[in-house]
């Protein structure tokens, strides 16, 4: 169609030029040469005009097409950008969902593994009881197997899960740190005290106590320090000063620390259901870090790494200074999981904050008497500058053993942000339903909050402790857990050693 139109225009231009030349020749008397030249000139002019107009039309058409193409490209770019944004949002949501699913399933898988270990130990205990019953049901007239024919000596029966209070055999020389116990066990042989502690651990006669750590001067509960109390064979409560020295000499501290850490995880999970921004300090001994059961403890912490921001592992200053390369590597493994450390029981203020900050220490707990220079200890650092020095490296100072209001006033001049002591609240027992994860009893009309922990959300006044019923204690002792099986394994290994 375009070619036909171009041919028609060309024919028209030739006719017009020829006509012009004929008119000039016939009408105006031009010669043949002059008329031909005029016709050719007219044809050239017409061709030039046609070319110019055609080029203008083509250029406008191309301009419109380029504009349309630009608009289409811009729309396509916007669509690609929107698609990229949606893909990024989908990947982010998918990654978040995967992390939430992993954090929810890892503790469950760890609990299932520990439950399997506990079931296996129960089966061993049942088989041991069956063997004992078979021996007791043998007729008295039946001669013993040794009298009939010589036989190989029988292997000793495995220890039952709850053994009666019997007198333990003589302990190895390493267990005899002294001829008699101290405190409540004064006059009792160390091996007998160690046996009492071992039976209390295996029977799960362990109570969790917590003492609040408050902000100064507001006195709002921010953290809790967890500690354990044991109950003897007669149900009498044993204070830490009574059993800790014997537990350390008897190698039972790893078992106690495992129980304490498991109870702390239970309490933290309960508090997180109430949306409480409260952390827990768990005292860990140096023997636990260097013990053979530390890999299992590290696996338990890894399974609960979602709680790393709420659990603080606490070590004594003497323990931290005596750590070797192996213990420091173990601490580094815990730091990689996101957990933080605290140092307590300071004997002096000679610290290297930079070094401790790099090792994962975020808290330092010092006695109030030491900070106020009432303990008679001389240090290179002035107590008034101690809090600022620690703060430069991200370490918070906590003053403990506060017993009077005058001490609080003096500590505020030293820029101490946290305090702990009997002035605010002594250690209080945690209710059993907190450890069970179910609250069956109505809340008391006291200052306790819904988590069952000591202290109040509005005030830090001490509360009257509530005794735990005997039936609840018995039920708690009968309930097993994976960490309890690990504790029994540690205790039995120490017995074999």
Can you describe what's shown?
With 497 residues, the protein is an alpha/beta fold. It folds into 2 domains: 2-78, no CATH class; 182-477 and 485-496, TIM Barrel (Alpha-Beta Barrel). It has 17 helices and 10 strands. It has helices at residues 2-26, 32-136, 145-148, 190-202, 240-249, 253-273, 286-290, 294-303, 317-321, 325-336, 353-358, 368-371, 383-391, 405-412, 432-436, 470-478, 482-496; strands at residues 206-215, 221-231, 237-238, 279-283, 311-316, 340-344, 361-367, 396-400, 418-419, 428-429. Strands 1-2-4-5-6-7-8-9 form an 8-stranded mixed barrel. 28% of the residues are buried.
Low-pLDDT ranges: 144-181, 437-483
Number of helical segments with 4 or more residues: 17
Kindly identify the CATH topology of the largest domain.
TIM Barrel
Large-scale geometry? elongated
């Amino acid at each position: 169609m375009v070619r036909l139109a171009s041919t028609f225009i060309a024919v028209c231009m030739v006719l017009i030029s020829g006509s012009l030349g004929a008119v000039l020749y016939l009408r105006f008397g031009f010669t043949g040469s002059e008329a031909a030249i005029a016709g050719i000139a007219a044809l050239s002019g017409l061709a030039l005009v046609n070319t110019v107009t055609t080029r203008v039309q083509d250029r406008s058409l191309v301009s419109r097409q380029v504009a349309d193409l630009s608009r289409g490209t811009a729309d396509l770019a916007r669509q690609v950008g929107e698609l990229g944004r949606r893909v990024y949002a989908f990947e982010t949501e998918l990654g978040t969902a995967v992390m939430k699913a992993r954090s929810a399933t890892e503790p469950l898988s760890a609990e299932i593994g520990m439950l399997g270990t506990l079931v296996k130990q129960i089966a061993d205990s049942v088989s041991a009881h069956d063997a004992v019953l078979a021996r007791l049901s043998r007729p008295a007239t039946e001669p013993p197997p040794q009298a009939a024919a010589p036989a190989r000596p029988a292997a000793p029966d495995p220890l039952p899960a709850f053994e009666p209070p019997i007198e333990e055999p003589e302990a190895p020389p390493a267990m005899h740190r002294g001829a008699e116990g101290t405190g409540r066990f004064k006059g009792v042989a160390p091996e007998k005290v160690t046996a009492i502690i071992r039976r209390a651990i295996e029977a799960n006669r362990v109570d969790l106590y917590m003492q609040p750590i408050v902000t100064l001067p507001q006195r709002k509960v921010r953290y809790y320090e967890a500690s354990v109390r044991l109950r003897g064979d007669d149900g009498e409560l044993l204070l830490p000063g009574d059993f800790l020295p014997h537990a350390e000499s008897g190698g039972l501290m790893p078992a106690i620390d495992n129980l304490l850490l498991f109870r702390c995880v239970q309490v933290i999970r309960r508090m997180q259901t109430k949306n409480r921004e409260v952390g827990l300090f768990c005292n860990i001994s140096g023997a636990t870090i260097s013990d053979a059961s530390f890999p299992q403890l590290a696996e338990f912490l890894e399974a609960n790494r979602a709680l790393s921001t709420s659990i603080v592992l606490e070590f004594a200053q003497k323990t931290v200074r005596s750590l070797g390369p192996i213990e420091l590597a173990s601490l580094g493994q815990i730091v990689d999981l996101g957990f933080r450390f605290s140092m307590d029981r300071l004997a002096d203020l000679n610290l290297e904050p930079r070094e401790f900050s790099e090792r994962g220490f975020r808290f330092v707990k010092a006695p109030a008497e030491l900070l106020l220079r009432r303990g008679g200890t001389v240090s290179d650092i002035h107590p008034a500058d101690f809090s600022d020095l620690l703060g430069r490296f991200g370490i918070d100072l906590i003053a403990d053993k506060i017993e009077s209001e005058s001490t609080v006033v003096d500590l505020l001049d030293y820029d101490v942000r946290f305090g702990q002591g009997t002035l605010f609240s002594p250690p209080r027992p945690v209710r059993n339903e907190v450890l069970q994860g179910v609250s069956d009893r109505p809340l008391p009309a006291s200052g306790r909050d819904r988590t069952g922990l000591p202290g109040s959300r509005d005030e830090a006044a001490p509360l009257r402790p509530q005794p735990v019923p005997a039936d609840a204690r018995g039920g708690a002792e009968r309930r097993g857990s994976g960490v309890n099986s690990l504790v029994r394994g540690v205790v039995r290994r120490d017995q074999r050693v």
